[in-house]
Each structure stands twice: as C-alpha cells, then as structure tokens.
Amino acid sequence: MAETMIPKATAKRLPLYYRYLNFLANSGTTKISSTELSEAVKVDSATIRRDFSYFGALGKRGYGYDVMDLLKFFKKILNQDRLTNVALVGVGNLGHALLNYNFRQANNIRISAGFDVNPDIAGTIQSGVPIYPMSDLADQLRQQQIEIVILTVPTDAAQGITDDLVKAGIKGIMNFTPLRISVPGYVRVQNVDLATELQTLIYFLDHYGPTLKDTDEDE
Amino acid sequence: MAETMIPKATAKRLPLYYRYLNFLANSGTTKISSTELSEAVKVDSATIRRDFSYFGALGKRGYGYDVMDLLKFFKKILNQDRLTNVALVGVGNLGHALLNYNFRQANNIRISAGFDVNPDIAGTIQSGVPIYPMSDLADQLRQQQIEIVILTVPTDAAQGITDDLVKAGIKGIMNFTPLRISVPGYVRVQNVDLATELQTLIYFLDHYGPTLKDTDEDE
Lengths: 219, 219
Description:
Two copies of one chain form a homodimer.
Chain A: H1 8-26, E1 31-32, H2 34-41, H3 45-53, E2 65-66, H4 67-77, E3 84-89, H5 93-100, E4 109-116, E5 125-126, E6 129-133, H6 137-143, E7 148-151, H7 155-167, E8 172-175, E9 188-191, H8 194-207
Parallel strand pairs in A: 3-4, 3-7, 4-6, 7-8, 8-9
Antiparallel strand pairs in A: 1-2, 5-6
Helix pairs in contact in A: 1-4
C-alpha cells in the first residue's frame, strides 16, 4: 500500500472513523453516506472527504461508502489485526482508572504491565495487570518488547522516569503529567493534559460560546 | 481589552504558557527569552511569537519577556482570579480519579459536585466532593450555578444524560466517553478520548516515527 504523509489532524480522526464503522458493521449496516457519517462522528463532510482522499478514492458520489470496505481499509491502516502491548508507569488514582479503562473495546490495545514505587502494590495483580517494582522496569519492558508507555506518575518524578524509559528503549509516551517532558527526537510524546483541556473549554465558553465543528483550521 | 478571535490551537496553549510562567514567578525568575520558553513548553518559538502577537506585542526583541507582565496578562485572559466550579457526572473508576486530580494546582477550577446513579455512593462525600443522586442533577446545577460538566458515565448512558444536562442549562461538557455526543449549537463539547489518543500515538510510531514539535500546521 502506497502511503502518503498525512496531517496529524487526519491521523487523529482515523480511530474515530474506525470505531464508528465497527459499530455500523456490528449493527448490520452495509452502506453509509458522507452526510450520515458526518452527523455521527461530528466532523464536517468536507473534512471527511479530504481525510479519505489521502488514502485514495474510497467512496462514490451519490452512492456513499461501503461500510465493510472502509472497515477493512481502516483496520489495515490502524494495524487492528495486531495486539499492541503497552505499559503503565505510576499506579495512583489515575493510573488505576486507566488499568480499568477498556482500551481494547474498539482498539486492539492492552496494558500488559504496570510499574509503581509503592511496595504495597508492586508484586500484586491490579485489575488483571501485573504490577512490577520500578527496579524491574528495563528488564520487563525488554522481555515484553513494550515500546509504548502510559505515564501517570507525580509531576516531580516525571522527567527522571522519562529518562529511565528512554534508556530502556521506549519509543512512545502517553504523558498524563502536566510536565512537558524532554525526550530525544526519536521518541514520540502524546500529551494528555486534563487541566489544560478543561481550562481550554472554560476559556472558549468565556470568550466565544458554542462548539465549532471539527476542522483542521481551528484544531 | 480588545479581543481578537484566536485560533483554537493558540487557545489550547494558553494554559500551558500560564502554568509555566507561574512556575517561573514562584522560583523568582523575572525575565525569559522566547528560546527558553520554547524549550520549556516544547512549542517552537515562531509559534509562541505568533500566539503572543494575537494579544498585542508582549515582548521586546533582544530582551525577551517580562515574567510578571506576561503572568498578569494571561491571568486576566484565563480568568484565573475567579474560581470556576464544575460538576462531574459518573463517579466510576475514571470519575473517581478525576475527583482526586488536582485541577486547582495552576488552574482556578474546582469540582464542587458529583453525580451518580449508584445509591451506595450518592449521598456520600468522595475525596471531599459531595455526590448527589441523578434525580438532584437539575436542582443542584441550578443552585450551584454550574455551567460546565465533566462526563465520565458509561457510553450507553452518555447521550441520555447529555440531554438532561442540556435541559438543565449546561453550557460546556468535557466528554470522556468515546461517544461523540449530540448537543445544541450553543453547548461546547471538549472530547477527551483516551483510546483514540493512545491509538494515534501507536499509529504515528508505526508510520512515521518521532515527535514533531507543536505547530498549528500539524495539530
């Protein structure tokens, strides 16, 4: 499959499309118009058409999209036929909630190891996931060939642990701490900063009011 | 203060700038160059200068930025002198973690009420926050003049509860469910879809490798 460099905004919408197509397929729907898809995923149809165009012509004007075709296509793009194991570092309140979060529902992702400094938790199984002491970090990540880590440690521990993760060969970090961690160029960081998300919502309500639809321009 | 319509990407970075400036001020730093700021918040300096330019010229070439000036400015923009009360609906694992999440640290936000269907939780105080039964939703939101809700309910309950929230006069929803909820045009929704964030990270590692710096173009 020929691949083009797609915009980050498009890549972010792919899992959304995939999940909804999965839902449609499960409910027996075989065809969907770009208007219906737009309504369901709350992305305007021009953006949907542009997103899809990066992967070649997937729909026919006046016919819409074939659900199974699209589903097969996104499944391949998103590597959904392969299980991705990730680790979670820091089993506090948020970490614990994420262990219980169903990442697998429409995404073939599994947290297969947790790590924590707390000796009361390390060595136990929490929500089905084995929790190891921090001293086992490098070893376990290597043994389990884990390249992606969810980081839910206290802010003041974030950079130190990030350095350890980088040394252990991690390629991607989903960073839930408010710290903007420093990593070498070959490590990818996805920041999920909950306070900032909430503050952005408040800012927009204070200043502008209602939701705009999802477009590249304002995202 | 004259206000321009700023891009969503800029608005999302304001809390980040604000938090870092707060940190600088607390540590006694009075001046910062745009290069230092760029390093710390991981946003390229051209983007920082452009972001700041929406609010008028805030720095001087060759001198950098005055920390206290910037801080005062962002404090006003972000309404940090006023406490914002929000509610949380759905006190499950994730909801509970968010009750413990320190939204106030650098952001003047407080979860002042929780709501849940579970009679074992409703009527209790969890992590300092009173939890009310769903039947009290409209009443409590009105009494506490809450306009913003964090939604952490099961997916199949999300749309029904959203409709109730809209009826109760809510203006903003931070949606943690994977469902793209339907709301009237005057209600703003901020989606925080954890599985999608993680899948986007995996997608980028599979296809392109390392992190790009934060710019409008690829966000």
